[in-house]
Amino acid sequence: MQHFLLSAKARTLSLKAVFRMGEDAAYRTFCDLRWPETEGEAVCPRCGCTETYNITSRCKFKCVACHHQFSVTSGTIFSSRKLSFTDLLAAIVIFVNGAKGVSALQVSRDLDVQYKTAFVLSHKLREAMALEQASAKLDGIVEIDGAYFGGYVKPENRKEDRKDRRLKINASGKRQCVVIMRERNGRSLPFVVPSEGDAVPLVRDNVANLATMYADEGAGWDALHNGWNTKRVNHSVQFMDKGVCTNQAESYFSRLRRMEVGTHHHIAGPYLAAYAREASWREDNRRVDNGSQAMMVGNAVMASRQSRRWAGYWQR
Question: Which CATH architecture has domain 141-284?
Fold first, then answer.
């Protein structure tokens, strides 16, 4: 049986089509994404009036009621944009096309922009993805598992000088744990915590009380038995025990590991949560064609508010 990503159904939008449509068509696409209720006709973000003047020379609108001037990206995560609408739409398509993520260096080369621009733009798209994921509590069968990222300690050259890096005293203190809560054949929610056991309070906020929890033999999950019907599998003995497993959680970590090792090569600690949420979005939508994925991200971008973390941001 052919894998979905190899089929024609997975390819419904290409970069060739984006650049062929031209700037005007790309602009209309963003208008349709911003104001779907009025079929792309501008709505004043300040007073909600649907009557506006078009300032065609600047791609802006002026409200008839309150005289407020605004653009299609005003107040969104793309506010104060410098790139053309064609480049922004192409950036979204490039971003969703990477099954294991896309590096900022590749985006900078494909769009012919500075690395700083590509880095900030990619993180804005990740922020929009995270906003799209907010929804109701997980229910049914929910798998939970944790994996540790970062904090690598380089071993000494001589064998007699090497230390046991598994001991806490020899750790760098930068290691963080990504915990994933994933519905069977449903949504997933990632969190970054110091250790697995620290995620239990987060389970109370994000998993329904009647859900069934599947976890491994880690001691951090013992507290789950106090609030949920919890079933465990001992991975030192077997990967699955009478249908109880955490295979879908492990699938998520497989994608995140390959993003870290194969695409980004290093994920700094402050940004780990953003990459974890990106991997979660890609897992949840792995059977959606790339055109629909691009429109989902576009809708999230146009529905978002202006980013406070990434507006005019750069870090050395």
Answer: 2-Layer Sandwich (3.30)
Rounded Cα distance between 224 and 204, Å, is: 9
Question: Per this entry, what is the length of the chain?
Answer: 316
Helix axes 290-303, 85-97, angle to 10 degrees: 120
Token reading at 66:
């309150």
Task: Domain ranges for the chain, please list them.
Answer: 4-133+290-303, 141-284
Model pLDDT, residue 115: 94
Name the residue among 85, 82, 53 with its Cα closest to residue 70: 53
- pLDDT, tens digit (0-9, with 9 covering 90-100), for 21-50: 999 999 999 999 999 999 999 999 999 999
Supply the pLDDT for residue 169: 87
**Rounded to whole angstroms, how far apart are CA atoms 17 and 121?**
21
Residue 262 has which token pair? 């194969």
- Strand runs (DSSP E) across the chain, as ranges? 52-55, 60-63, 69-70, 141-149, 176-183, 188-193, 212-216, 229-233
Interhelix angle 247-258/272-284, nearest 10 degrees: 120
- How distant is the alpha carbon of residue 203 from its chain centre? 20
Q: What is the pLDDT of residues 53-106, one digit of tens each?
A: 999 888 899 999 999 999 999 999 998 889 999 999 999 999 999 999 999 999
User: Distance (Å, rounded) from C-alpha 59 to C-alpha 48?
Assistant: 19
Exposure of 241 by Cβ count < 10 A (0-12 exposed, 13-18 middle, 19+ buried)?
Answer: middle
Closest CA to 189 of 108, 132, 231, 235: 132
Q: CB-hemisphere CA count at 13 Å for 41? A: 10
